[in-house]
Amino acid sequence: MGLEAWFMDTSDEDQRKDHKMEPNQPASLEDLGKLGVFYRKLNADIYESDPKLEEIRKDQGYSYMDIITIHKDTLPNYEEKLKTFFTEHLHTDDEIRYVLDGRGYFDVRDHEDRWIRIATCKGDLISLPAGIYHRFTLDETNYIKAMRLFVGEPVWKAHNRPADDMDARTKYIASQH
């Protein structure tokens, strides 16, 4: 199955619920592509030796890699980190995540400032462009294991919205026209 994404409702119920509208309003890979979101499906069972992953890393220059497991038993300051991840923000570099196990949601803003929720699961590789407003949360399983990829040294700094005057944001907006 491919990636599933949809426009979100405005309920402030538990962030880990799916928040689909009634009726559901799906967002396509094409919709996401227009926002600069890149997606590939890979075989997470062979991530340590996957030639497709190696090819992507080489083509994109992803020289740095580590693995994060987000679960209350593995991540120090779990509740605090989840709140941070779910606060709307942007980065000065692309955010690249490859889901090795579990599930989670990446929410991105479209051109009309509506939230699109992207459901990710094992095998999904997603890249969010520098400067796009986004946030992350687990789903109701409360678990994800993901590879974080970077070009060069990792920069973990999140810039919470509003950050419209930042170079990464202005470049992102300019690339969308």
From TrEMBL:
**Entry's cofactor comment:** Binds either 1 Fe or Ni cation per monomer. Iron-binding promotes an acireductone dioxygenase reaction producing 2-keto-4-methylthiobutyrate, while nickel-binding promotes an acireductone dioxygenase reaction producing 3-(methylsulfanyl)propanoate.
* Catalysed transformations (reactions): 1,2-dihydroxy-5-(methylsulfanyl)pent-1-en-3-one + O2 = 3-(methylsulfanyl)propanoate + CO + formate + 2 H(+); 1,2-dihydroxy-5-(methylsulfanyl)pent-1-en-3-one + O2 = 4-methylsulfanyl-2-oxobutanoate + formate + 2 H(+)
Q: Name one GO molecular function term.
A: acireductone dioxygenase (Ni2+-requiring) activity
Q: Which Pfam families match?
A: ARD
Q: Give TM regions.
A: none
The subcellular localization recorded is: Cytoplasm; Nucleus; Cell membrane
Q: Where does Fe(2+) bind?
A: 89, 91, 95, 134
Name the segments for region: Disordered.
1-27
Q: Where does Ni(2+) bind?
A: 89, 91, 95, 134
Using the UniProt record, give the first listed, main subcellular location. cytoplasm
Signal peptide range equals none
Ordered alphabetically, the record's keywords are:
Amino-acid biosynthesis, Cell membrane, Cytoplasm, Dioxygenase, Iron, Membrane, Metal-binding, Methionine biosynthesis, Nickel, Nucleus, Oxidoreductase
Its name, as the record gives it, is Acireductone dioxygenase
- Gene name of the encoded protein: ADI1
